[in-house]
Amino acid sequence: MPLPLYGFVEGDTVGVLIIADERESVGSLAKKLRDAVSLRVATTDEMEIVYRAVALDPAITLDQARFAPLERFDLRRKHGVSENRNLG
Amino acid sequence: MLKREEWLPLARKLDWEFSYTTEREVFPEVISGRPWLPHSAWKDWDESFKTSYREYVENQHEKDMAVYAVRDAVGRLENVQNLATPWLNGLKIHAAALPLGEFTATIGNLRGARFGRDSAWRAMACFGALDEFRHTQIPLLLMHELVRWDARFDWTHKFYHTNNWVAIAARHFFDELTLGQNAIEFQIATNVILETGFTNLQFVGLASLAHEAGDHMFEKMVTSIQTDEARHAQIGHPVLALVMKHDPKYAQYLVDKWFWRNWHLFSFLTGVSMDYMTAREQRSASFKEFMEEWIVDQFFRTLDEFGLKKPWYWDTFLVELETYHHMLYAAAYTYRATVWFDLMMPSPADRSWLRQKYPKYWDDIEAVWEQLGEQWKSKGPGRENEMAMHAAVLPAFCDLCQFPLSAGTPRNNTATVVAHDGKSYICCSEPCRWIFEHEPERYAGHKDVVKRVLSGEAPADLGKLLTDYFQLTPDTWGKDVCSGDYEWLRNRRAASR
Q1: Which of A8, B200, B288, B458 is 20 to 30 A away from residue B467, measured at CA?
Q2: pLDDT cut 70: percent of chain B above it
Q3: Which is it for strands B416-420 and A16-21: parallel, antiparallel or unpaired?
Q4: Hey, is the C-beta of B337 within 8 angstroms of any chain A C-beta?
């Protein structure tokens, strides 16, 4: 079932609408968001999805992570990873 | 014969006590506004600068003749065609946003002319309505000649009739400020906040930049409009003073709410124009510097005189003064086909200037422009690569201000989800959220662009969204001014080989 979500990437200047599927993985969602903002932000694998203040395992599904429609999720540098100016 | 100072007070104060109806029936609270007070509380309503109808007609006639003289001298098509491209694109923003927005203020003033609580207020609001009608017709007339040269100037009339996202934001603002508003809130929000604060910035600040850009027609138009604003803006001050006396908490709420709503609208209209659409060498000051002079300094001295405090979100505002229009512009650049004007990438020299003016968070904004430069380098310049250099995923919008979710900083976007009545909304910032939660009945039923797409009301496909919903065409939708072919980028490309 389509799951509309608001995605925000650390370093970006705007939030975007991501249409996800509750059966897809958190890792897949991260890739969708990275692709969506790639014009403005160079992202890396050293970033993680944060939802409701919790960093998520990329292997679990959105359903397992209890994503709800029209909620916010973020792609942020993993804790402890130092900044690269372009995040890339 | 009576002298002017003898008969004018008589000609202004015309109220009488009703005997066949009640004051509440003539001035219902829902249209006149609150606090509802008997006329005895309003009878001393007074404007500083008084005018008679005859004086009004004579003065306005002179002003109009002056505007048309400048139009005839320097406002012809061939004069406009010689203006710098960034300025011309900024002109397209103002041409679209101004006239029909002013017409809504005609209607708001007519509400004041009928439901204002004192006859002198109502008389001044009559003149205010005529002023705003003048502000509608002047830009429509001046820009009309340009349509045969550039169809985007047709947006001078068309803009508010489209569902372009900027028009949705502007209509949302003006529908609440003027059309669907009671007389008291209209006069305070429009005269005190918008006209004493933000249109000073718009019409005086922008006029000086127009002068530097050589656009003397626009300069004359906005300075002439500003002379009317200065007169009718005085309507709101005695209204605010009385509301402050009887309900200071409500007065403060109105100031806090409308300052924020105006801030976001003018960040887009004026911030982007001043810092990105005016050639760097023609900028006499940054948007922030204009804001600090006209708003932070002068306007807040005015509020202080009323006993009002700075809005509770002042620290948030100070962050946004450094970031918001930069975040908006960088986002808008990657969605430029969704607007009716062209945008350009700031050059390294432009960005040095911006860094100097906005040092606190500029590194984070700079990173976005660097990435965009790299993207053009790898894809190559040219019209054929315009859409490859355009974002394909829909941006998200605030359910209050209707602008993109570009508040906060690149490291900390302040968008926050709000639950109301079983539904989910998103607001770009704490102040937008605060306004939404104070009056949810006003805002909760409105659909932003995202919700329109999700409901099927607007197309999900970007191409159809541009043409069928935003009413743009391949000729009128926005592009990069140089199609990525910037000299500084060419130099970089050459240097990296």
Answers
A1: A8
A2: 100
A3: unpaired
A4: no
Structure-token match 């506004």, residue found: B33
Encode burial over B44-59: b for 16+ CB neighbours within 10 A, e otherwise: ebbbeebbeeeebeee
Please state the separation of Cα B168 from the chain's center in Å. Answer: 13
Q: Is it the case that residue A88 has pLDDT exceeding 50?
A: no
CA B483 to chain centre: 29
Q: How many helices (H) and strands (E) does chain A have?
A: 1, 5
DSSP string, A1-15: -EEEEEEEETT-SS-
ipTM of the prediction: 0.94
Identify all chain A residues contacting B391, using CB atoms and an 8 Å cutoff.
Answer: 16, 36-37, 39-40
Instruction: For residue B122, give both structure tokens.
Output: 């109502």
Percent composition of chain B: helix, strand, coil (DSSP 3-state, to 5): 70, 5, 30
pLDDT band for position A86 (cuts 50, 70, 90)? very low
Separation of alpha carbons B121 and B111, rounded Å: 11
**Is the bond leading into B440 cis (omega within 30 degrees of zero)?**
no
Residues B178-223 pLDDT 10s? 998 999 999 999 999 999 889 888 888 888 889 999 999 999 999 9
B295: its two tokens: 């708003």
Residue in A closest to B454 by C-alpha: A4
User: If DSSP codes are grouped into helix, strand and coil, which group holds residue B413?
Assistant: strand
